[in-house]
């Protein structure tokens, strides 16, 4: 059962990464390098695995929802920073 959930997570991440890969074939607006795919794949995998860990270890539904919401908010902030450098931090390359 655990291996099946991990397989679903990995297939979901691959599916999400296929979206920009396919878009790159049809438009010049999407221009990802291999590093972009590696970074986003790592971020998605980390979020998915931490979410899985939270789901398994925290039994209180309110705490579980709060931790997952916090994790998603942190992921979105990091994603926006890496994409456009909204906070002008060194990780965004600005």
What are the main properties of this structure?
94 residues
The termini sit apart by 44 Å
- Estimate the mean pLDDT confidence: 92
Whole-number total of structural domains: 1
Structural class: mainly alpha
SSE pattern, N- to C-terminal: HHH
Task: Enumerate the spans where pLDDT stays under 50 for 5 or more consecutive residues.
Answer: none
Specify the helix fraction band. over 70%
Percent range for β-strand residues: under 5%
Total beta-strand segments: 0
Rounded to an integer in angstroms, the radius of gyration calculated over CA atoms is 16 Å
- Major β-sheet profile: none
Count helical runs. 3
Gross geometry: flat
Transmembrane segments: 7-26, 32-54, 66-87
Keywords: Membrane, Transmembrane, Transmembrane helix
Summarize the structure.
The chain is mainly alpha-helical and 94 residues long.
Question: How would you sum up this structure, described in words?
Answer:
This protein has three helices and no strands. The protein is flat. The chain has one domain (2-92). 78% of the residues lie in helices and 0% in strands.
Summarize the topology:
Blueprint: H1 2-26, H2 34-57, H3 61-84
Transmembrane segments: 7-26, 32-54, 66-87
Keywords: Membrane, Transmembrane, Transmembrane helix
């Amino acid at each position: 059962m655990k291996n099946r959930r991990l397989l679903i997570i990995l297939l979901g991440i691959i599916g999400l990464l296929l979206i920009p890969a396919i878009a790159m074939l049809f438009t010049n607006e999407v221009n990802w390098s291999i590093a972009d795919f590696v970074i986003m794949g790592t971020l998605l995998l980390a979020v998915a695995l931490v979410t899985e860990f939270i789901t398994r270890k925290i039994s209180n539904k309110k705490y579980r929802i709060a931790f997952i919401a916090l994790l998603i908010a942190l992921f979105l902030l990091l994603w926006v920073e890496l994409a456009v450098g909204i906070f002008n931090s060194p990780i965004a390359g600005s």
